[in-house]
Write a structure and sequence with these properties.
With 179 residues, the chain is mostly helical. The protein has seven helices and no strands.
Length: 179
Protein backbone atom coordinates (compact mmCIF):
# COMPACT_ATOMS: atom_id res chain seq x y z
CA UNK A 1 0.00 0.00 0.00
CA UNK A 2 1.47 3.39 -0.95
CA UNK A 3 2.29 5.91 1.75
CA UNK A 4 -0.08 8.86 1.85
CA UNK A 5 0.13 12.19 3.57
CA UNK A 6 -3.56 12.91 3.06
CA UNK A 7 -4.88 13.75 6.56
CA UNK A 8 -8.20 11.85 6.23
CA UNK A 9 -6.33 8.66 5.35
CA UNK A 10 -3.77 9.22 8.10
CA UNK A 11 -6.57 9.72 10.64
CA UNK A 12 -8.21 6.51 9.43
CA UNK A 13 -4.87 4.72 9.88
CA UNK A 14 -4.53 6.21 13.38
CA UNK A 15 -8.03 5.01 14.30
CA UNK A 16 -7.16 1.51 13.09
CA UNK A 17 -3.94 1.53 15.12
CA UNK A 18 -5.82 2.66 18.22
CA UNK A 19 -8.30 -0.19 17.86
CA UNK A 20 -5.40 -2.67 18.01
CA UNK A 21 -3.01 -0.87 20.39
CA UNK A 22 -3.69 -3.24 23.27
CA UNK A 23 -2.63 -6.37 21.37
CA UNK A 24 1.16 -6.13 21.34
CA UNK A 25 2.40 -3.60 23.87
CA UNK A 26 2.73 -3.53 27.65
CA UNK A 27 0.42 -1.09 29.45
CA UNK A 28 3.17 1.46 30.27
CA UNK A 29 4.09 1.72 26.59
CA UNK A 30 0.44 1.86 25.54
CA UNK A 31 -0.18 4.84 27.80
CA UNK A 32 2.78 6.72 26.32
CA UNK A 33 1.80 5.80 22.77
CA UNK A 34 -1.68 7.15 23.50
CA UNK A 35 -0.19 10.50 24.52
CA UNK A 36 1.73 10.63 21.24
CA UNK A 37 -1.25 9.45 19.20
CA UNK A 38 -3.50 12.11 20.77
CA UNK A 39 -1.02 14.78 19.68
CA UNK A 40 -1.10 13.34 16.14
CA UNK A 41 -4.90 13.13 16.22
CA UNK A 42 -5.31 16.78 17.14
CA UNK A 43 -2.83 17.74 14.43
CA UNK A 44 -4.69 15.75 11.78
CA UNK A 45 -8.06 17.18 12.86
CA UNK A 46 -6.56 20.68 12.57
CA UNK A 47 -5.28 19.88 9.06
CA UNK A 48 -8.63 18.44 7.99
CA UNK A 49 -10.41 21.51 9.42
CA UNK A 50 -13.94 20.14 9.01
CA UNK A 51 -16.68 20.31 11.67
CA UNK A 52 -17.01 16.49 11.71
CA UNK A 53 -13.36 16.17 12.77
CA UNK A 54 -13.29 18.47 15.76
CA UNK A 55 -11.44 18.28 19.04
CA UNK A 56 -14.54 16.57 20.41
CA UNK A 57 -14.28 13.86 17.73
CA UNK A 58 -10.68 13.11 18.74
CA UNK A 59 -11.54 13.21 22.46
CA UNK A 60 -14.43 10.73 21.97
CA UNK A 61 -12.16 8.43 20.01
CA UNK A 62 -9.61 8.37 22.83
CA UNK A 63 -12.24 8.09 25.57
CA UNK A 64 -13.39 4.84 23.95
CA UNK A 65 -9.81 3.56 23.76
CA UNK A 66 -9.27 4.28 27.47
CA UNK A 67 -12.57 2.57 28.35
CA UNK A 68 -11.58 -0.49 26.29
CA UNK A 69 -8.17 -0.61 27.98
CA UNK A 70 -9.78 -0.40 31.42
CA UNK A 71 -11.93 -3.41 30.55
CA UNK A 72 -9.05 -5.40 29.08
CA UNK A 73 -6.64 -4.77 31.95
CA UNK A 74 -9.28 -4.86 34.71
CA UNK A 75 -8.26 -1.52 36.18
CA UNK A 76 -9.29 2.10 35.83
CA UNK A 77 -7.14 3.63 33.09
CA UNK A 78 -8.28 7.23 32.95
CA UNK A 79 -7.97 9.51 29.95
CA UNK A 80 -5.50 12.17 31.16
CA UNK A 81 -7.31 14.87 29.18
CA UNK A 82 -10.38 14.50 31.42
CA UNK A 83 -8.43 16.32 34.15
CA UNK A 84 -5.46 18.09 32.56
CA UNK A 85 -4.61 19.85 35.83
CA UNK A 86 -4.06 16.64 37.78
CA UNK A 87 -2.55 14.88 34.77
CA UNK A 88 0.26 17.38 34.32
CA UNK A 89 1.43 16.55 37.85
CA UNK A 90 0.94 12.81 37.35
CA UNK A 91 2.90 12.72 34.10
CA UNK A 92 5.80 14.67 35.57
CA UNK A 93 5.81 12.40 38.64
CA UNK A 94 5.70 9.33 36.42
CA UNK A 95 8.64 10.57 34.35
CA UNK A 96 10.64 11.20 37.52
CA UNK A 97 9.74 7.74 38.83
CA UNK A 98 11.30 6.09 35.78
CA UNK A 99 14.66 7.39 36.99
CA UNK A 100 14.28 5.44 40.25
CA UNK A 101 12.88 2.18 38.85
CA UNK A 102 14.55 -0.48 36.77
CA UNK A 103 12.28 -0.21 33.76
CA UNK A 104 14.70 -1.97 31.42
CA UNK A 105 16.84 -0.58 28.65
CA UNK A 106 14.24 -0.95 25.91
CA UNK A 107 11.61 0.99 27.85
CA UNK A 108 14.01 3.82 28.74
CA UNK A 109 15.09 4.11 25.09
CA UNK A 110 11.41 4.29 24.18
CA UNK A 111 10.83 7.07 26.76
CA UNK A 112 13.81 9.07 25.50
CA UNK A 113 12.68 8.68 21.89
CA UNK A 114 9.13 9.89 22.65
CA UNK A 115 10.10 12.94 24.67
CA UNK A 116 9.86 15.45 21.85
CA UNK A 117 6.81 13.87 20.19
CA UNK A 118 4.75 12.95 23.25
CA UNK A 119 5.71 14.45 26.59
CA UNK A 120 6.60 18.03 25.65
CA UNK A 121 3.48 18.78 23.57
CA UNK A 122 1.20 16.84 25.93
CA UNK A 123 2.38 18.76 28.97
CA UNK A 124 2.13 22.06 27.11
CA UNK A 125 -1.45 21.27 26.13
CA UNK A 126 -2.35 20.19 29.64
CA UNK A 127 -0.86 23.38 31.04
CA UNK A 128 -2.91 25.46 28.61
CA UNK A 129 -6.10 23.43 29.14
CA UNK A 130 -5.91 23.52 32.95
CA UNK A 131 -8.27 26.24 34.15
CA UNK A 132 -7.33 26.22 37.84
CA UNK A 133 -5.52 29.17 39.36
CA UNK A 134 -3.29 26.79 41.33
CA UNK A 135 -1.42 25.10 38.51
CA UNK A 136 2.02 24.82 37.05
CA UNK A 137 2.85 27.58 34.61
CA UNK A 138 4.43 26.55 31.32
CA UNK A 139 7.75 28.01 32.55
CA UNK A 140 7.61 25.78 35.64
CA UNK A 141 6.78 22.72 33.53
CA UNK A 142 9.62 23.57 31.14
CA UNK A 143 12.13 23.70 33.98
CA UNK A 144 10.96 20.32 35.27
CA UNK A 145 11.04 18.79 31.79
CA UNK A 146 14.54 20.11 31.14
CA UNK A 147 15.77 18.62 34.43
CA UNK A 148 14.17 15.26 33.64
CA UNK A 149 15.59 15.33 30.10
CA UNK A 150 19.06 15.94 31.47
CA UNK A 151 18.77 13.19 34.10
CA UNK A 152 17.41 10.73 31.52
CA UNK A 153 20.06 11.77 29.00
CA UNK A 154 17.45 12.48 26.34
CA UNK A 155 19.19 12.92 23.01
CA UNK A 156 17.43 16.10 21.85
CA UNK A 157 17.96 19.70 22.84
CA UNK A 158 15.29 21.84 24.40
CA UNK A 159 15.59 24.15 21.38
CA UNK A 160 14.60 21.25 19.09
CA UNK A 161 11.64 20.50 21.34
CA UNK A 162 10.52 24.13 21.35
CA UNK A 163 10.81 24.49 17.57
CA UNK A 164 8.58 21.48 17.05
CA UNK A 165 6.24 22.59 19.84
CA UNK A 166 5.84 26.11 18.41
CA UNK A 167 4.83 24.71 15.00
CA UNK A 168 2.44 22.26 16.63
CA UNK A 169 0.77 24.81 18.90
CA UNK A 170 0.32 27.26 16.04
CA UNK A 171 -1.45 24.53 14.06
CA UNK A 172 -3.80 23.26 16.78
CA UNK A 173 -4.66 26.40 18.77
CA UNK A 174 -7.83 27.11 16.74
CA UNK A 175 -8.97 23.48 17.05
CA UNK A 176 -8.35 23.46 20.79
CA UNK A 177 -9.93 26.87 21.41
CA UNK A 178 -6.70 28.24 22.86
CA UNK A 179 -5.79 31.95 22.65
Amino acid sequence: MPVTFEPHKRLETLEDYLSRIHTALPLDEIRIQLLRCRIVGYSLAAEINEPAYSRDYIDRLFLKVYQDLSSKFGQDITDPYLDPCASQYQILDELRSYLCKDMGGHFMEFIRAKFKQAFVPTLRLMTDLCQREEKYSWDEVKIELQEIMQEMEVDVTWEECEERLDRYMKKIKPLMGLG
